[in-house]
Every structure is written in structure tokens, then in C-alpha cells.
Amino acid sequence: MAAKTIKVTQIGSPIRRPTDQRATLIGLGLNKMHKTRELADTPEVRGMIAKVQHMVKVED
């Protein structure tokens, strides 16, 4: 059975944000505005998304 995935799109700029939030975006594979990645729906990824929820949009 295939793992469930979620689509994450960066909608906010990391300019003038703390270094850890920039690093979290890079960890998610996002580093440019409007870039989209499909990621596995795991607790680790959900935690990273929660940290930068004001800069990303999540679709199931």
C-alpha cells in the first residue's frame, strides 16, 4: 500500500524570518516562492509544517 502524501506550497517569503524557520523550509525542500513539493504524511513532516505554517499552504 502506498504511503499517503501531502502537497506543500510555499506562499510566504523567508526574508526577515528567524534562521530556524529558513532552515525548516529548506528541510521541506522549499526555498522559492510558489514552489510545491509532495511529501510523505508523517508526524515529522507535520511538525515541520506546523513550525512554518504561516509561510506554507497544505493540500491533502
Question: Could you please describe the fold and organization of this structure?
Answer:
This protein is α+β, with helices and mostly antiparallel strands and 60 residues long. It is 30% helix and 25% strand. The protein is built from two helices and three strands. The protein has helices spanning 19-27, 43-51; strands at residues 5-10, 36-40, 56-59. Strands 2-1-3 form a three-stranded antiparallel sheet, with no helix packed on it. The longest helix has 9 residues, at 19-27. It is globular, with a radius of gyration of 11 Å. The model has no long low-confidence stretch (mean pLDDT 96).
Compact overview of the structure:
By secondary structure, the protein is α+β, with helices and mostly antiparallel strands.
Helix tally?
Answer: 2
Low-confidence stretches: none
Shape: globular
Distance separating the two termini: 17 Å
Instruction: Give the mean pLDDT.
Output: 96
Question: Major sheet: size, sense and barrel closure?
Answer: 3 strands, antiparallel
Task: Please name the defining characteristics of this protein.
single chain; alpha+beta; 60 residues
Helix-strand blueprint:
Elements: E1 5-10, H1 19-27, E2 36-40, H2 43-51, E3 56-59
Antiparallel strand pairs: 1-2, 1-3
